[in-house]
Protein: Pseudouridine synthase
Organism: Flavobacterium ardleyense
Amino acid sequence: MHHHYLIHKPYGYLSQFIYELKRPKKLLGELYGFPENTMAIGRLDEDSEGLLLLTTDGMMSEVVRSKKVEKEYYAQVDGIITEEAVEQLKNGVEIGFNGRKYITKKCQSSLLNEIPNLGERGKKIRDERHGPTSWVSITLTEGKFRQVRKMTSAVGFPTLRLVRVRVGNIHLNDLKAGEVLEVESFDV
């Protein structure tokens, strides 16, 4: 019998259970007593937060990581993002990936008019005297290394905070940072 979990990965944690380099890092296993062979489906980098699915079922991992499953992110960006920049994000922008230039696939993107209720981040982003910030929603079906951060930088609005809020039909909802919820299965 397989186990499946929803987790709100906090800022500052790696999306893995083992890290063998010298510097100590915070790992997912510190948040909950996961069974052996539990794996994260996809990754969120150490500086990112939000919905992460974990499973002991490798086939389920393949289904969720497929290009058919949308992943939605809320990005707090430096400055007041323009409609023109949001349109550029929708149509695809050029980013660097594996030492090459890459044009991102078309995606959904929209300005968030209200600050999302995501709770405080473990580390303060910065204070208001450094200028205004704004929030944008970006929904992808691909997931290149640090893609959302590279995309917002490409249109002139670097990401300050990044939170994945949805994977397919599964939403972060009110799950608090560090909270783990075991579920029967994933209905993506």
